[in-house]
Amino acid sequence: MTLFTLIALFIASFGEVTVGAHQIALSFTSILFMLPLSLSMALTVRVGNTLGQQRLAHARKVAWNGIVISVIVAAINSILLWVSAVPVIALYTSNSEIQALALSIIALAVIFQLSDSLQVNLAGALRGYKDTRIVMVITVLSYWIVGLGGGHWLGSRGVGDMIAPLGVHGYWIGLIAGLSTAALLLGWRLQRISIRG
């Protein structure tokens, strides 16, 4: 939550249209995020209970089945986000400039759904294994270095002479990169931990 709040502060310098579009996209995606987040909490409990019963092979199966379900949930959320974007944005504002920018951000948020759902559920499964320190290190590095650092760089500086500063889109691309990095590293960690039992 702190990461999203800080990004909103950086985006504030881009003007009210950008802030409005960002808030609409963030609000809409946050509502959809509740399903992967709930699944993550259930996965933590389910994996932990199974491990407590000394059923190590079953705990591994529970963890990876939960990850498969999280991918399915992400696909459903992405479709729902894209199909309902225009009418939902219209509920927030009638300003056509904000609507257009919010729609372009939501196009990025469609991609965001997979990595966000994966990383939160991988972290949930790892918490079930009582593996919290490494999860914290991975998420801090992924969110703050890759996500915020990369997003701020893309948003305010671009990429040399090749790509001009991307503004709010740069921050969202940074979020996608940060969440994807977290998902990859957490997936690697779950693979190692679940094999060890």
UniProtKB/TrEMBL annotation:
Pfam families: MatE. InterPro entries: MATE_fam, MATE_MdtK. The chain crosses the membrane at residues 25-45, 66-92, 98-114, 134-154, 166-188. Keywords: Membrane, Transmembrane, Transmembrane helix, Transport. This is Multidrug resistance protein NorM. It comes from Vreelandella olivaria.
